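Here is one such protein, fold included:

. . .
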Amino acid sequence: MAPERFFLELEPPAGTQADWPHVVIVGGGFAGLRATHRLIGKPVRVTLIDKRNFNLFQPLLYQVATGLVGQADVASPLRQMIGKAPNVQILLGEVEELDVKAREIVFNERRYGYDHLILATGSGSSYFGHEEWRAMAPPMKILEHANEIRRRVLSALEEAEQTPDPQRRRLLQSVAVIGAGPTGCELAGSLIDLMRHAIERDFKQLRAEDCRVLLVDPGDRVLRAMHPQLSAAAGAYLQRSGIELVLGGRVQQISQTEVQLTFKATGEERCLEVATICWTAGVRASHLGKLLAASTGCQTDKGGRVIVEPDFSIPGHPEVRVVGDLCSYSHTADGQPLPGMAGPAVQMGGWVAADIVARVQGQQHRPFVFTDFGSMAVVGPLYAVADLRGLRLSGLVGWLVWGLAHLAFMPEMENRLSLLLKWMWVIATRERDSMLIIGHRNQHIGVEVGLERRETTDPTTTSVASTAAAQSS
């Protein structure tokens, strides 16, 4: 017998599924994908909506930006991953309105009803009220951003190869990475390795010792969220690799080739002259959180994340759940919000899906308890730091743990195998997978992560951004 087929809301679903509750999941990232997986084969109809037709493994975007792997290695088509499940329908597009009273969403100029709604639209980059910096300092949230960073770095080296002026050549071999969290450290460490080995192997006029990568952060150490011992180990390794740590300086202005800094402790002002600038400093929640707050009166934190109940619902609306980077979940033992990382997002998505199934079946579900497996960051070839619930590792052992953890989180076996083979190839040969220069400058800067048209025209967004900038200083 052929499997039952349907297209939710566009045509009435056939057979037994017509009476099943309809769960709409918005966002196919870590949390949304995990929730969908947990609902496969359950007595619910599932609609997964995303503006992109693939799941992106964001923790490895820096490897796309630095040519270690190709974009297909960190992105998996949603239809190939979960599209064959008989109770799952995948729709491409962006949710632009929420009507919580009517239990409907507005999507592709249609209204769709739901019985349960899971919002997992993640986060984008925040420039703390200075969106004009985006064109000069691209973020790294989507594939287009990673491709843009690689294009700028490689294009600068190509220009330097045919530049007779030594001072200009040195400028073109310089990069500033703003933000010394895990993403910034990983990007900086991979960039210095990319530039030096590319020059040694592939360029005739350039000198590897002229390469400069500056890692800028307003704090007093890199990886401030990690234990000081690991932070110090990572900082020392980065410096040994040739990276200049510019700590304690807050960005005041960015232009095409300059970053203006002010050091609060000393009052000093400093100008960094670099050819390429990358931004990994700020995160802001999807605008869908603001839409939900406007529709229901729920509260958001200063970063735009929705403050949720212990079951990830919002007050007065148990049918609406918010998970992943979009939610602020503080119902923890220490009262601190869960971090916006892959681990918490996966656990949130899985728990909410299981809770919905329990409610549909009239059963009680255990309370959510977050299991913290620790944090880690890779800062160079075969060198990483990891804090695994008090077990602190660095160096090669840390890198092995980091690699195994990332392969385990990778949702598709095909991607795991391709990544493992490419990592082994890089270790053996130092040759990178993708050194292509594609597109033209700023081609992808305008690509929207989520409802950015609305954000640039919404006066409340400007107000929130300005407040965040003031608080951060």
Q: What stands out?
A: The chain has a mean pLDDT of 88. The first strand starts at residue 22 and ends at 26.
